[in-house]
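Amino Acid Chain and Its Fold in Token Form
===========================================
Structure side: the spatial fold of the chain, written down as a series of whole-number tokens.
Position: the record begins directly beneath this header, with no further notes in between.
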Amino acid sequence: MTRIPGLVLLLSFLLQSPAAAAPCGPDFFDDPRGCELRLPEMCGAPALPDALVSYGAAPVVVTVAGLRFDEIGPGKLELGFILRVIRRFFPGKSLDEALLAGEVENFNTEHFMLDAGEEPLSERIRLPDDYLEQRIREYPGCAAAGVTVIPFQWSRDPDDTDQVVPAFMERLAAVHAEYGGKRPIYILAHSWGSMLMHETLHRLSRTRPDIVIDRLITTGSPLVPSNPVVALFIKIGIKKEDLEKKASHPANVLQWRNIWSGRDPYSNEIRPADLNVRVDGGVENVEPTLIDLILHNKPLRKEAKKDLWRIRDIKKWHFSYLGDFSTVLKSIEKEISIRVFEPFVAVPIVDPAAKK
């Protein structure tokens, strides 16, 4: 069979007319508002063309989940998460936790325009421990392409990182022994899972340089947190350059794709990555309009504030890489919807030739 260049395949996939939408089944995110964060196959995802799924050998995808969701908090920036990032990268750093706590609180107050004692509205997100492998396995294009999913399960407690990394080194070596040289080996890591794999791969590059990973995909990675969080770090004496130096390209990774959102302060562009893809770049900037209503329109103030919380929900954006981000802003009668998982995560998994 003649192989069509990867770019043409990708364009043909993206330009397909979607199938008629099927009724939404049980929501993957257990969200009471149905398909706001949804599985594409439950809400009318198009099937992948035969040419796309047949291009090259089907990859083996190692999945590494992030922290348990109570570690992330109810939609605000969480002090505990920030502390763990700092301590992971800078174990000898003396921290003024009271100062950092105050800065985190100030960020949340300004970010969500909170009044005294007010808490932002946050969508309910409950995912099982195997959420990442389940997400791939239930996507029809991955099954059609013959993708093999190998989950790296762990306690999802960041304090266990030192114990988990050596175990992951052994597991990755076993995966390489079985599939290396026969099928592409990919790693899909979310949130703290990217911290684990960043360390695991760097250690392996020194002890087992023969083990090569074809594609590392990080989503919502806190390796270099976003500028508002970096600003907090700078106030306690950690420079942005120090963070960027800590995040480096593992020598044993052929391609590193980093998927991030500007509205997810736990993630950011990571300069050492080969490709950075921002998923919320096409979202209409409605914040100025909502802020104007909050400040100057008393009848709509309450609803506009809820809408601001919805569009800035940190937790929801942090998990948007697994589905679609969608919300209804009642004060301005606008629906915001953006497809994330399928174009930015699933296509690079099922299409070895994907470059963007």
Q: What stands out?
A: The chain has one domain: 59-350. Residues 59-350 form one domain. The CA atoms of residues 12 and 49 lie 8 Å apart. The beta strands are 60-64, 148-151, 185-190, 215-219, 256-260, 275-278, 324-329, 334-339.
